[in-house]
Write a structure and sequence with these properties.
81% of the residues lie in helices and 0% in strands. The chain has helices at 14-39, 41-48, 52-55, 57-76, 82-102, 106-133, 140-169, 171-192, 204-208, 214-226, 228-234, 237-244, 252-299, 303-331, 336-363, 370-399, 404-413.
């Protein structure tokens, strides 16, 4: 428990809500650009004169930017004032997407997408810390999940709108839409997000020292492996809907809508569960995710069950993502921004792992239901580092029972 008196705790005011909403707009912009490329991929391929498989590397370039940018930027910028850092990161994101829209060819587009991904994880890391600092400790899970809610809402609203514009007006319009959202985010952050100092004593070596913490590494492993299970299914959801459930191709967007709605529910739920019991919620969400993925493999031939299964998988996966974010912030010590940013690196590696293993079993002739089985296996495998984490956590608390509460309060207050 925090030692702060009740009167000293931050109060939730209208400005607090508006500030967190401004940060969520940034999440909406990032979520839109992350997924809209898939929707206009054939248009991009035709526009820059490459095949669709080659154009797929554009998606990978963005993901690589996230993986590289999150730890590097977070470590280098920990000393900077956080509002100014948010503006700088969103401006860099804006420039990357404008460069994507203006790219004259395939090579420059690859570079622009890589550059667009660089600020992704760091923005969420800083935004999570700022949101958490605006509310009392018992509400910090909900504050962080509110910022990440922008990602889930993007799947329901931003991505379909930008995809429609890209298909109707030209693929470059999809990225111009993201530029507009980034401009709105910068203006909103400047207008309503309060000043928040950085950590003047922070050093790059000290920040990266979080990567030597066993609990940080174990939590990252849970994210890479366990969350990879969701991507094993999501990467191949279109052929699952058409070839397994027998749905028309035009029904696929509705399946994706079910996934997006599940993400909204799961993100909101994850913040509340994390505030109640973070570690237990982390364990429960990954177990439920594994069970649901196995269930989808069984019920996907029945269309109504597929819609329900995809929705519930998204709820569990989004809850897991929120718990992972908060767990990394908790275990990273003073390097909380790095911990929060690293979550997005791990989830992008999970994307690559899940999609790759799903493709392996499909190529082996096991059919489009097999990736869900692989996903269930990955979720189960994610329990291994989580079990080790639980043992280390228990031993630490047993060895230093008097220190643990103070450390927990320090982690919450950072």
């Amino acid at each position: 428990m925090s030692s702060q008196p009740t009167s000293a705790l931050p109060r939730v005011t209208v400005r607090t809500v508006v500030a967190i909403a401004a940060l969520a707009v940034g999440g909406f912009a990032i979520g839109t650009t992350e997924f809209v490329t898939m929707g206009v991929l054939p248009d991009i391929a035709e526009g820059v004169g490459v095949s669709i498989p080659e154009a797929g590397h554009i998606v990978s370039a963005y993901a690589l930017g996230v993986v590289v940018g999150a730890p590097v930027i977070a470590a280098l910028s920990a000393r900077l004032p956080r509002r100014a850092l948010l503006v700088g990161l969103m401006t860099a994101f804006l420039v990357g997407n404008a460069a994507s829209a203006l790219a004259p060819g395939y090579g420059t587009l690859l570079l622009a997408r890589f550059a667009s991904g660089l600020p992704h994880g760091a923005f969420f890391g800083v935004a999570s810390l700022v949101a958490a600092s605006l509310v009392a400790p018992g509400l910090r899970g909900r504050a962080v999940s509110s910022v990440l809610l922008g990602l889930s809402v993007a799947l329901v609203a931003g991505v379909p709108l930008a995809t429609w514009l890209g298909q109707s007006v030209g693929w470059r319009a999809a990225y111009w839409t993201v530029v507009v959202l980034a401009v709105l985010t910068v203006l909103a952050v400047v207008a309503v997000v309060p000043h928040s100092p950085g950590r003047p004593d922070a050093t790059v070596r000290g920040e990266l020292g979080a990567l030597r913490r066993p609990q940080v590494l174990l939590t990252l492993a849970v994210g890479i492996v366990g969350f990879g299970g969701m991507f094993a299914l999501y990467s191949y959801i279109s052929p699952v809907a058409t070839d397994v459930a027998g749905l028309a191709r035009g029904t696929v967007p509705w399946v994706l809508l079910a996934y997006g709605l599940g993400g909204i529910v799961g993100t909101a739920l994850g913040g509340r569960l994390a505030d109640l019991a973070l570690f237990r919620s982390l364990v429960g969400s990954i177990v439920v995710l594994g069970v649901l993925l196995a269930l989808v493999a069984l019920i996907s031939p029945w269309a109504p069950a597929l819609f329900t299964g995809v929705f519930l998988v998204s709820v569990a996966a989004s809850t897991l993502a929120i718990c992972l974010q908060l767990r990394l912030m908790e275990t990273a010590g003073d390097a909380q921004m790095l911990g929060a940013a690293l979550n997005h690196s791990s989830l992008n590696l999970a994307n690559a792992l899940g999609a790759w293993l799903g493709g392996v079993v499909i190529a082996a002739g096991l059919g489009y239901r097999a990736p869900s089985v692989v996903g269930a296996g990955l979720a189960a495998a994610g329990l291994l580092p989580l079990a080790v984490s639980a043992v280390v956590r228990s031993r630490t608390r047993t060895a230093t029972p008097a220190v643990a509460p103070q450390e927990e309060a320090h982690a919450s207050a950072s």
